[in-house]
Amino acid sequence: MKSNKAFTLIEVMVVIAVLTVLTVSIVPSFSGYLKNQNVKQAQETLKSDLRSVQNKALTGVLSDTGAYFWGILLAADSNGGPSKYIMYPVAEDSSAPGMPESTACSIGYSTPGGAEKYTVTLETGITIDETSLEGNDGAYTVGCIFFDRAKGDALFWELTVDAGTALATIKLDKDGALSQNIYINSSGLIY
């Protein structure tokens, strides 16, 4: 008698059904994992850029052009477009020593000596939460952080600062569902 060592159609269908159920249950959780990682990556990139700007202030990069501060302008598009942030040197206000120029928290700010601005646009779906930003610049809600050259201390302009902790919070959102926070205190500590 001949032995048949093949799978029956029913056995193949059961295996396919089990694999389908497993795939359907894994894909949504993996998708959520990817979204969460995208927000975390944006958070780490912004924290790194904040530290880089602070380091430029402390080392006096472009101080020969009149830059006393280095700043980062956070801009959330009020019309739903992509959020961005701009890093740039800032001159000291001649009428208020120890303070950035009064026009410095503006997308159109002219940097000392015409120095280059560095703009980073966040990936689609990741936004800077407008609730922590208080300024208005055309279609954007803005807020600024300036680091001084002397100690790297942070000055907050047009940002919501918690009165009890003196912390400014930058909140990044992904499609309104996931979020990550960055905290900065007036001494320049970023976490």
Give a short synopsis of this structure:
It holds the Pfam family N_methyl. The chain has 191 residues and is of the alpha+beta class. The chain is built from one helix and nine strands; from the N terminus they run H-E-E-E-E-E-E-E-E-E.
Structure description:
The protein has 191 residues and is α+β, with helices and mostly antiparallel strands. The chain has one domain (33-185). Helices cover 27% and strands 30% of the residues. The chain has 1 helix and 9 strands; from the N terminus they run αβββββββββ. The chain has one helix at residues 9-59, and strands at residues 67-77, 84-91, 118-121, 126-128, 135-137, 140-148, 154-157, 167-174, 178-185. Strands 1, 2, 3, 5, 6 and 7 form a 6-stranded antiparallel β-sheet that branches. Strand 5 and strand 6 form a beta hairpin. The longest helix has 51 residues, at 9-59. The protein is elongated and about 100 Å long. The model has no long low-confidence stretch (mean pLDDT 92).
Q: What low-confidence regions span 5 or more consecutive residues with pLDDT below 50?
A: none
**Amount of beta strand:** 25-35%
Q: Could you report the average pLDDT, rounded to the nearest whole number? A: 92
The helix fraction, in percent, is 25-40%
Organism: candidate division WWE3 bacterium RIFOXYA2_FULL_46_9
Protein name: General secretion pathway GspH domain-containing protein
Transmembrane segments: 12-34
InterPro entries: N_methyl_site (IPR012902), Pilin-like (IPR045584)
